[in-house]
Design brief:
Layout (H helix, E strand, L loop, with lengths): L11 E7 L1 E5 L3 E7 L10 E9 L9 E6 L2 E9 L2 E5 L4 E4 L4 E5 L4 E7 L6 E9 L10 E5 L6 E3 L5 E6 L1 E4 L2 E4 L10 E7 L4 E5 L5 E8 L1 E4 L4 E4 L2 E6 L3 E5 L5 E8 L7 E3 L2 E3 L2 H12 L6
Antiparallel strand pairs: 1-22, 2-3, 3-4, 4-11, 5-10, 6-9, 6-11, 7-8, 7-10, 9-12, 13-14, 14-17, 15-16, 17-24, 18-23, 19-22, 19-24, 20-21, 20-23, 25-26
Length: 291
């Protein structure tokens, strides 16, 4: 699907996706919302998962050491605690409200393990593609505590946590915790009160989607509705219009500039050609992927 260049138009809900139950890592149960597609419909977003369970058996195995190359991972915690370690000797402790924005680029080997043996573990992981010219740059990451993520209080109740990108208010622009990413992502965690309306500008040419994880939300000029566990792809326009009914809602808004480059993915590697993928596996086997 392509986006029309239509100024002053509210985007419409073009596709609704229901998350699919699956497991990853060492048996971690999760809901896969965006999976790789032949048409790369969510370019530059590659994969999007939600994990949420208060049963330790669903998450205790975590994600033992594994490699990545060619993209970025964004982990956003709502509840619980995770420990990140990588081959460079870095450690990061993710708690409720924290974000880790990791640019794997040339290569990183890391683990993500729960720091709890019971209770609720809940959050999201998003994969964002890197342009070809950045895929082999040195890896880096940011651990962002919840206190460093700007929160905008809305006039009619609710709020927006601005994780990445800019949000324009009557008093000026609020810049998110993450900036300087080539794909210019917006990553907003939005809480809406009952009977609330909100319009959010998005760039005309950017991919945009909304994922509802609590309640239900009307989306678009015709207020097509998304319920908890559903993601909506939004096309054609420069604004996203959201409304709630008699109950509050929580949702993520994701938007970014598409790369429009070939995508070849195999497991933890995302490159532009099959030859580059084969090289990534050779580098990992030979111990030089993350050098």
């Amino acid at each position: 699907m392509t986006t029309k260049q239509t100024v002053g138009q509210v985007r419409h809900l073009a596709r609704t996706i229901n998350g699919q139950r699956t497991s990853d890592g060492a048996g971690v149960k999760l809901k896969r919302i965006i999976s790789p597609t032949p048409d790369n419909a969510f370019d530059p977003f590659l994969l999007f998962d939600e994990f949420a369970s208060d049963e330790a058996a669903d998450y205790i195995g975590g994600f033992p050491p594994h490699p990545h190359r060619g993209f970025e991972t964004v982990t956003y915690m709502l509840a619980g605690a995770m420990l990140h370690r990588d081959h460079l000797g870095n450690e990061g402790h993710l708690r409720a409200g924290d974000v880790q924005w990791m640019t794997a680029a040339h290569g990183i080997i890391h683990s993500e393990m729960p720091e709890q043996e019971d209770g609720l573990l809940q959050g999201f992981q998003l994969w964002i593609n890197l342009p070809a010219e950045e895929k082999m740059k040195p890896p880096h990451y940011q651990d962002i505590p919840a206190a460093d993520i700007p929160t905008v209080s809305l006039a009619d109740g609710g709020y927006i946590k601005v994780i990445a990108g800019d949000y324009a208010t009557a008093n000026g622009k609020v810049t998110g915790a993450v900036t300087g990413v080539t794909t210019q992502p917006l990553y907003f965690d939005i809480a809406l009160s009952p009977q609330q309306e909100l319009a959010i500008p998005v760039a005309l040419e950017h991919t945009a989607a909304v994922y509802v994880y609590q309640g239900d939300v009307g989306v678009g000029a015709d207020t097509s509705r998304l319920s908890s566990g559903q993601l909506g792809q939004l096309l054609d326009g420069d604004r996203i219009h959201l409304t709630t009914g008699n109950s509050p809602a929580r949702l993520l808004l994701l938007s970014a500039k598409p790369l429009r480059e070939p995508v070849v993915q195999s497991g933890p590697f995302v490159m532009n050609t099959t030859a580059e993928i084969e090289q990534a596996f050779r580098d990992y086997r030979d111990g030089v992927l993350a050098l």
